[in-house]
Design goal:
Layout: H1 3-32, H2 47-53, H3 63-72
Length: about 130
């Protein structure tokens, strides 16, 4: 096969593949999927109540929005970019949709208002030759 005949066969193969793939997505995949719940468990929840509990939202996960918040709109405090493990650096600004503050979900004071903890004292873990008093 060469020339136009080869192109026609390739186009037909692509079309057949697309039809089979689409039929599998429509009929086969739902059989293995999870059924939707009878009632939506988050139907009563608003964005602000969810954002109070979860640090990652559309606003905080979007680096362009965070930069625009700081440099274009001059929000204070600007929208904090979400990074896993750095939630304690995020600041609340309800006017722009940033509601999360670490410690606020359980009613305890935030990390910025907690008194600093004392350093641990005692011996360091490890083999006896490596231990020393702090």
């Amino acid at each position: 096969m060469t020339g136009p005949h080869l192109i026609g066969v390739c186009c037909l193969a692509w079309l057949l593949h697309t039809v089979v793939h689409t039929l599998c997505l429509i009929h086969l995949v739902p059989k293995f999927g999870k059924r939707p719940p009878a009632e939506d468990p988050a139907a009563h929840e608003t964005f602000s109540s969810l954002a109070h509990r979860l640090p990652c939202s559309w606003f905080t996960a979007n680096p362009i929005w965070c930069l625009r918040s700081k440099h274009t709109y001059s929000h204070f405090p600007p929208c904090s970019y979400y990074q896993l493990g750095k939630e304690n650096l995020m600041r609340v600004n309800e006017k722009i949709g940033c509601f999360f503050e670490e410690g606020a979900k359980d009613g305890s004071p935030s990390a910025r208002t907690r008194p600093p903890q004392k350093a641990a004292t005692g011996s360091m873990p490890g083999p006896p030759s490596a231990r020393r008093q702090v």
